[in-house]
Write a structure and sequence with these properties.
By secondary structure, this protein is mainly β. The strands form 7 sheets. Strands 8, 13, 17, 20, 21 and 23 form a 6-stranded antiparallel β-sheet that branches. Strands 1-7-6-3 form a 4-stranded mixed β-sheet, with no helix packed on it. The protein has a 4-stranded antiparallel β-sheet with strand order 16-22-18-19, with no helix packed on it. The protein is globular, with a radius of gyration of 23 Å. It starts with 23 loop residues before the first strand and ends in a 5-residue tail after the last strand. About 2% of the residues have low confidence.
Length: 299
Amino acid sequence: MHLLPAKEHKIRILSKPMTATPLVYRSKPGSKITIKLPYSKMSVADPKKALADFSIDDDVLLGKISKDAEDAIIFLKKDNFQIPIELSINNKEKEKQIPYRISGRREVVKFDHLYNSDTIQSRNMWRFAPIDMDMSKMVDENSTINFDGYSFKVKPTGVNIVLLELGDLHYYTNALQLSDKPKSVIINIGKPIKGIELLIAAEWKVRLTGMKVGEIQLNYSDGYIQTIPIVNGYNTGSFNAREASNVIYHELEWLKNIYAVSFDADKTRVIKDIKISILTADGSLGILGANIVVDERNI
C-alpha cells in the first residue's frame, strides 16, 4: 500500500469470518470424505497414502479413504500456510496387533533425581505452546497410573518427565539447534531381569514416521550389549496420533496420549545398566515411569 503524505489517513478494513477446519475427521476404509477448506485451490500432501483418490473443487476437498488405511495425517497447503488434518480411521477389518507384554513380577524403577522437565514441545501436528504432563486426575492414592494391565508409579504434577532431546532443525536454514536437555539417560539395574516396561510421552515430526529415532541399549555385566531400535510408528508415537502399532495407549485427554511399551532382556545374564538415547532432531522422548520385570521365582 502506498499513501501520499498527509496529516492523517483513514483506512477501512472489511473482513468476513472464516469457516473453521476441524483438526480431526473420523471415517472408515473405503468411505468418501468431504472437507471444507479455509481457502480455495489449496494443495494436499498425503504422506501415508490414506486417500485412494481425491480432487479439489475450489474450497472443497472430495476424497475416498484407502481400503487398508489406518490413522493418518494429511496436510492442506497454500503458499507458506499449512494446516494438518488428522484422519481417525476405524479399520475393523484389519486384525488388531496385540502389543507384547512380559510375564513376571514388576519392580518400580526410581529415577526422581533424573526428572528435568514439566512439559514437552508439541511437534507432530503443530508447533504451539509446550504440552504439560498433569496426570493428577489419572492416578490413585499411591500416585500410580493403571491401564490395560499396566501399572506405573509416577509424579502426577510438576517436574515429572525425564526428557530426552537432540535438538531442532531450523525452519528456514535447516541448521541444527541443540537442545539444553540430555540426549540419553542411564538406568542402573545390577541383576538379571526379563525385561523393562516404560511409560512414555513423546512428540515427533510427521516426516520421521517409519524412521529409527532412538535406541535402547542393554549393557550386561559380561560385556554383551543388546541394542533395540526405537522406531516412530512402531514402538514410539506422538501425543495426538495413536499410530504406533506395538504400544498400549492411554488417553489423558483429547489429543493427549501417553503409552506403555515393553522390551525383552536376556534373563540368563546380569544387566549392569540400560541406556535410552534419542538419535534424531525434531523429536522428544519423555519417560514418565518405568518397571523392570523379574522372574517370579526370584523372590
